[in-house]
């Protein structure tokens, strides 16, 4: 099912957000607290982060569980960033895509993650896949529902849609094709975070000049706020806006 987190604020070590907290992504890989489907997220993990002066993020992704990668523990201790997206993966179906299936997916300045599942995959989304140019389908990083969702979102971003519009339209289309889909989507360009809460948990935490949007709280700070289901979240370092999302028309 997966768990993910995006952060904007003053530069911090990656591990301060992903590894060190009592209930951070490290622990969410084997003991998530609010996950509604599945109990282990050990089918891969990844983090993307932005360096000052470079709009294109770096990524580190691996196939196995995050707790087994000592190299990432070292990176998390010393690499600092003011904008990042991290994720741990629980595969919905068996596959051989390896780290290519681990979020975050990326293109240009964008990082993307999907927390959820699409029942009836791949058949349920055949019609939507057919709306993409052949070149974009051939460029999919993995043969997973998340990779196709990213292709659908990225197609809209490249066409000039704002991130919120791209996510909202994609969620409505996919939910129409697969009514039981869980579609918590998360995208950032390093300056803003946009996300959807759609049949899975989503929370946000704000502080002076910083914001975190995550599948679940990584600690017991009382300032965490749960996002209502069927909601679009648009967040910057100084502001969070929640917008209701409607179910697709029958």
From TrEMBL:
Pathway named in the protein's UniProt entry: Amino-acid biosynthesis; ergothioneine biosynthesis
| Species of the source | Streptomyces gulbargensis
Show the catalytic activity: gamma-L-glutamyl-hercynylcysteine S-oxide + H2O = S-(hercyn-2-yl)-L-cysteine S-oxide + L-glutamate
The record's gene field reads egtC
Name the enzyme's class.
hydrolase
Q: Fetch the PANTHER family from UniProt.
A: GAMMA-GLUTAMYL-HERCYNYLCYSTEINE SULFOXIDE HYDROLASE, GLUTAMINE AMIDOTRANSFERASE DUG3-RELATED
Q: Provide the Glutamine amidotransferase type-2 domain boundaries.
A: 2-250
> Which Enzyme Commission number(s) are on file for it?
3.5.1.118
Q: Could you identify this protein by its name?
A: Gamma-glutamyl-hercynylcysteine sulfoxide hydrolase
Q: Which InterPro entries match?
A: EgtC, EgtC-like, EgtC_Actinobacteria, Gamma-glu_amide_hydrolase, GATase_2_dom, Ntn_hydrolases_N
- What's this chain's function? Catalyzes the hydrolysis of the gamma-glutamyl amide bond of hercynyl-gamma-L-glutamyl-L-cysteine sulfoxide to produce hercynylcysteine sulfoxide, a step in the biosynthesis pathway of ergothioneine.
Q: Which UniProt keywords apply?
A: Glutamine amidotransferase, Hydrolase
Enumerate the transmembrane spans: none
Pfam families recorded: GATase_4
